[in-house]
Amino acid sequence: VLCLVSVLYLSEAAPLPVTGLMIGPLITVFRACKGGKKCETVALPPYFEDVIFLLLGSGFLATSMQLHGVDQRLVQWMTNLPCARGNPMSLRVILTFTALFMAFVLSAPAMMAVFLPILLNLSGAETGQMLADPSAELMLKGNIFCVLYAVLAGCMSTKLSPSVVAATNILEDSLRDDGIKHVEIGLLQYCAVGIPAAMLVTLLGIAVTYGTLPSGAAQHRGLLARPSLQRTCSARWSWG
C-alpha cells in the first residue's frame, strides 16, 4: 500500500485528494494493518476526526470570503485607513496583524489562499508579467514573508488550529498511555501562552524585514482604481 500510494503521489496518475482518500480503504482491502484483522476499525476512523472537519470548515470559510468579495472589502478597508494612506510600512503592519488575528480561527493554507492575491494586487502585479519596479518587488517579498510568518504563528497560537488540535490530542493520549490520567490543556491556558508568543514572532518578522526587505513606495493606488474592486466594494452585501 505504501509503495502504491507513493507512486500515485509522485506520478499524479490520480488527483492528489483522491490518492489521499484511497489510503484507508486500500489498507482495509489488503488487510495491511497490524494483525490483519478488523483493519476498518483502525484505518477508517481517522477520516472522521475533528481535525479533518476543522480543516474542511476553514477551507470553506476562506473560499466563501473570496466568492463573495469579503477579501476585497478587507483590502479597501485596510488601504483607506488614515494611518495606511501613503505609508507602505504602516500598511505592512496592518496586513500582518490582520492576517495574524484571522489565523486564530482559519488554517494556514486557507489564509494564504486569501492573502496571496491581496498581496500581489497591492504590489501592482499582473498575470503573466514581471514586476518592473525593484522597490515593488522588495515590498512584495517583505509583505509575503511578514504575512506568512504571522499566519504560521497565528495558527499555532490557539487550540482551534488543526495542527494544534492534532498535536495536543497526541500529547494527551501519550500521557494517558504512560499512566498520567486527567491531563487536559484548556483553551484559555493554551491561548495565554500562544497568543503573546504569536504576537512576538509577528513583531520580530516585521522588524527583520524592515531593513532587509523595505516596504518601498506605496503601490496600492492602482488596485483601488480597478472597476472590479469598485463594483464589489460598492455593492450590497450578499447572503453568502
Give the uncertain stretches in residue-range form.
218-228
Fraction in beta strands: under 5%
Number of helices: 12
End-to-end Cα distance, whole Å, is 41 Å
Explain what this protein looks like in three dimensions.
The protein is mainly alpha-helical and 240 residues long. Helices cover 68% and strands 0% of the residues. It contains twelve helices and no strands. The chain has helices spanning 2-11, 16-29, 40-43, 50-67, 70-79, 88-102, 108-122, 134-155, 162-177, 187-212, 221-224, 227-234. The two termini are 41 Å apart. Residues 218-228 have low confidence and may be disordered.
Quick take:
By secondary structure, the protein is an all-alpha fold. The protein is built from 12 helices and no strands.
Write the layout of secondary structure elements.
Elements: H1 2-11, H2 16-29, H3 40-43, H4 50-67, H5 70-79, H6 88-102, H7 108-122, H8 134-155, H9 162-177, H10 187-212, H11 221-224, H12 227-234
Helix pairs in contact: 1-2, 4-7, 4-9, 6-8, 6-10, 7-8, 8-10
